[in-house]
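Q: Given only this backbone (129 positions), what sequence would you predict?
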């Protein structure tokens, strides 16, 4: 299911990008980033080292812009839960539109490798995400 790939691969990738941005741009310590993101320092360390969240290449200008916005909001303490969710859903929409999960989806689901899969686009239309 595309949503399972989002939970297991996309969200960790987004978290990794946010953590790296908070550290590299704002010179925050891993502990500070962990507090802002609501994760452990060990998780941040794994994001930074590429041990977590490195399954998909999410480098895309529009995604990078959303990541920067999330980082700014977190850094400034002005991030509402709704805004963060909206930004993450926006990144997910871009990932689906650009078919960035397709190769991974086909690797994980052999039945999809045989088809011209549009599951992400179909489920996106149906669910509103």
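A: Predicted residues:
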């Amino acid at each position: 299911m595309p949503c399972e790939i989002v939970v297991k691969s996309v969200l960790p990738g987004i978290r990794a990008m946010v953590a790296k941005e908070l550290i590299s741009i704002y010179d925050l310590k891993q502990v500070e980033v962990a507090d802002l993101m609501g994760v452990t320092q060990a998780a941040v360390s794994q994001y930074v080292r590429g041990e977590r969240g490195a399954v998909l290449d999410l480098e895309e200008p529009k995604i990078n812009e959303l990541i920067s916005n999330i980082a700014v909001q977190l850094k400034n303490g002005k991030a509402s839960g709704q805004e963060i969710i909206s930004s993450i859903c926006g990144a997910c929409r871009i990932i689906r539109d650009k078919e960035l999960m397709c190769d991974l989806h086909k690797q994980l689901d052999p039945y999809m490798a045989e088809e011209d899969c549009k599951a992400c686009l179909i489920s996106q239309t149906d669910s509103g995400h």
